[in-house]
Amino acid sequence: MVDTDAPELQLLDALYRLNKLVLTDARVHVSAVAHLDLVDFLVLRTVKVGIDTPGDLVVDLGLNPSMLSRSLSKLADAGLVIREIDSADSRRSRIRLTDDGVRTTADIGGRMRPSLSRRLQLLPPDRIRVLLDSLEILCGDAVD
Fold first, then answer.
1. Share of the chain above pLDDT 90, in %
2. 88 or 133, which is more confident?
3. Which residues have C-beta within 8 Å of that of residue 42, sequence separation ≥ 6?
4. What is the dihedral of CA 50, 53, 58, 64, to 10 degrees?
5. Element (H, E) at 81
């Protein structure tokens, strides 16, 4: 019999519920700022932090290549990203945010911050840092 109160299963339950709450809220803010969906915004955010090749975006975001391709086409048509040939390897392309892409990403993030802040403020300030550091550790590559 499986112990449903085991910390591992509690982690799964809590992350699922938190993910559902945060993503539901995020979808509202993304669609309010631009004619994008959540995947498009996550692509923009990921490019902004420096992951800028289609292959790396697929791996980092866990998307299938055709979904990423559709998103990149949509973002390029909207003038939010530019696809460029990699100067070091002409077989690869790099994705870069346009000025509008930077602005749109910031606008969406700005709309999301208050609700995310309210959620984080349920914790004392010292526990916020512990939570964020802990999530960073758990998201690392150390776990098989």
1. 77
2. 133
3. 61
4. 150
5. strand 81-85
